[in-house]
Amino acid sequence: ADSLTEVLKEKERLRSEVRALRRECEEKDKRIRELEREVERSMRRIAELEEKLAKREGRIEELREEVNAKKYRTSFGNLTLEEIKQIYEEKKDKLTTNPLNWLSAVLFDNPIAIQEVATALGLQDSSSPSSSAAAPAPARETKDAAVRRRRLMEEMDFKRLAEEWNCSEEEARRMVAEKLGLPSSSSSSSEEASSSELIKRVRSIIEGY
Question: What is the total count of domains within the chain?
């Protein structure tokens, strides 16, 4: 009888252990399923982030293309940043004045354009105020500035400017005169005479600087 009692007790003990192990297995299975769901959510999140990253990279590339395609109004006509860089590289060794002063004249003293182009050319930090690029030249550079302006006037192609600005050559001359702070040229019987007169007036004003 005692032996049977011991067997029954052992059997009950084993049943309790089995129940406990089953509960433990169920809890572990439940935790595994939770972890699997977390992994699925993480994978979806990773996929979403990768998609956003791809879109941002695409947008960055679009912005780069827009910057490269953007044209600035210059004394050489409407040019892209890359075209301005090429002109600067060709002329920088021959400049007799501060490159920022040359750039300021080329861009008709447009502060935003000056800051963008100067930063791209490494002439100015992007955090620097754009007004600094258009600051007046020191007294010792006055003569150089006059020479620079005369050269710019000689290099201007009014016909090309008129085509790019979608206006007549006379209007192009007038706009250039306004940009330089000069009175608009009066109409004349011939475009050649008008151009010559404008250049004479520009030079006479520059000579007085």
Answer: 3
